[in-house]
C-alpha cells in the first residue's frame, strides 16, 4: 500500500511535469555524488539536476552491465546534459581542420608495438583543467609544444594557454569559442614565442593580449600537419618524433568515460565534425584492440587520471582528421 502510494505520487508529479520518476536509492546516489563534488543547488535546480543525474546513472549502469571495451562512471559532469556540456566545454564554432595534404613525411617503420612518452623521460606535463571555456585547443597546443620543447632541450616548460586564448585570433582562433592546434602553432611561429604558465597565467576567460616578447619561453620553427585520415602518419610521428595534437568528435557517450579503450558507434569521423582537441602521448594494444593514449584537459578526476584510451586504426570519431605538431628551433 505504501509503495503504491509513493509510486502514485511520483507518477502524478511526473505527469504534472514537476519532477521525474526516480527511486529513493537513486536520490541517495545523487546526494552522495553531490557531497563528493561539493554541489549545492536550490530546490528547483535540485530536481532538475537529479533528473539529469538519474538518466546518466542509469545509462552508465546499463553500459557497464554489457560487454564493451571501456567502462563508464560518474564524474564531475554527471549533472550536466550533453547540450550544456557541449556549450561549455567543446568547440562551439565549426572548425575547418582539413589538411588534405600535410607535410609530415612518414618513414616506413618498423614501429614499436607500444610507445608512451610519459615513460621515456620528463616529456609530458601534468594534466591541466580548462574550466568553463572552449579552450581545449590551447591545451592540446601547449601540451604538444611542451613535449616537443622538452625532447629538444631536455627541459620541460609549462606553457601559457591564456596567451593563446587572448592573442591568437589572427590565425583563425576564437579564444573560449574555439580554435585549432595547427593554427595556434602558426601563431606561436609568427609571434616569435609563447610565454610560460607562470608569466601568463590561465584565467579561463577571453581577455586582451598581454604578450611580453622578452618573456617568450618556447618557439616554433615550423608547423607540420599530418595529411587528413593518415592515421599511420600519426603512428609514425608519435613513434619517431613526439606526442601529436589531434581533434575528434566528442559525443554524449564520451562524457562518462571511465577507463578502457573508448570506441563509439555514434560519433562521426569527418573534418567538419571535430569539436575537441587533445594530445596523443603514445599508443599500444590490449586484447587485440589497438589504442591511442591521450591526454585530456578536463582535470585529473576525469577518466584515467585525466587520460583516456581510444581505439586506433579506424579513424575513430575522426581522430585522424586533423593532427599536427610543431618543429622546435634547432
Ligand atoms: C570551411 O570550409 C568550407 C569548404 O572549404 C567553406 O565553405 C566554409 O566557409 C569554411 N568555414 C569556416 C568557418 O571557415
Ligand atoms: C595546417 O592545417 C591548418 C588547418 O587545420 C591550416 O590552416 C594550415 O594552413 C595548414 N598548414 C600547412 C603548413 O599546411
Ligand atoms: C567514416 O565512417 C564510415 C562508416 O563507418 C566509413 O564508411 C568511412 O570510410 C569513414 N570515413 C573516414 C574518412 O574515415
TrEMBL record:
InterPro entries: Papain-like_cys_pep_sf, Pept_asp_AS, Pept_cys_AS, Pept_his_AS, Peptidase_C1A, Peptidase_C1A_C, Peptidase_C1A_papain-like, Prot_inhib_I29. One of its GO terms (biological process) is proteolysis. SUPFAM superfamilies: Cysteine proteinases (SSF54001). It is found in: Lysosome. GO terms for cellular component: lysosome. One of its GO terms (molecular function) is cysteine-type endopeptidase activity. This is Pro-cathepsin H.
